[in-house]
Amino acid sequence: MENCLPNLDSLQFVLHVLGGKWKLHILSILYFGKKRFKELEREIGTISPKMLIKELKDLEAAGIVYRQTFNTVPITVEYSLTEDGLTLKPVLDHVNEWAVHLKQKVNNRNKRATR
Length: 115
Hints:
Shape: globular
Transmembrane segments: 13-32
CATH topology: Arc Repressor Mutant, subunit A
Keywords: DNA-binding, Membrane, Transcription, Transcription regulation, Transmembrane, Transmembrane helix
Domain HTH hxlR-type: 4-107
Order of helices and strands: HHEHHEEHH
Radius of gyration: 18 Å
Organism: Chitinophaga filiformis (Myxococcus filiformis)
Number of helices: 6
Protein name: Helix-turn-helix transcriptional regulator
Strand order of the largest sheet: 1-3-2
Helix content: 55-70%
Distance between the termini: 42 Å
Structural class: alpha+beta
């Protein structure tokens, strides 16, 4: 049981940094390159500007997202992944594979249950 404690601490840290409804969605969009705030807002669709700002600030504070401002009128802000953010790609790819597999199993169980 003692060996599990460091793993639980790490998992709690990951959930703290990446938890919530929007962060993984934001990261998955930024893997395709830099995005302006409005582009992120449009691609996500159902997030409020206030929530998007909060989530981006959280990801920036964690060192996963980089915010760059340009001195234009109006000011242009672009978001991209940092080097640390890019290291999440293989992890998220595995989580996606796991999710696809599990979703398929759940759907198959539900189909059998409704017959």
